[in-house]
What does this fold into?
Amino acid sequence: PLRPGHITPRNPQRRASFCTSPHAAFASNFLSMTSDDTYSDVNFVVGSSTLEHGPATYNLHRCVWSCRSAKFKQLLQTGTCDAHGIYTIRLNEHIGILSFEKCLEFVYGGAVEIRSADVLDLLYTATELGVTVLRQQCLEYALRNINDDTVNSLFWPVVHD
It folds into this structure.
């Protein structure tokens, strides 16, 4: 006889798994964390103070960044925090806000979609932030898609300044 809350499986070696679209649901849940600072414990300051509205601040999560970037794992282990336990990290001013947001989407959601023209900016950002998986994917994409047109478009502003 079964008692409430007790189930005797017929085959105890058999495994069960339960999920709803595992990747999409998981990514969506993690991405939602970027817009809710309830459990955030690190602030990333992104962009130049010369911008019209100044740099942007993102309230994020040490545990996520420590898992996704060896650079930040070390930095957050040795860094100091304020009286509320919040770390503040000012990023390189050459990292653009849009590029950081795309990197953020990858770190929390595991995927990102960008225009081909933005791959090199994202490659720079991923390199600076130590997000090695994204860096590698951007690099591979850039190498696969390099041709005369892409090289010319990259160097045209430099040569004609």
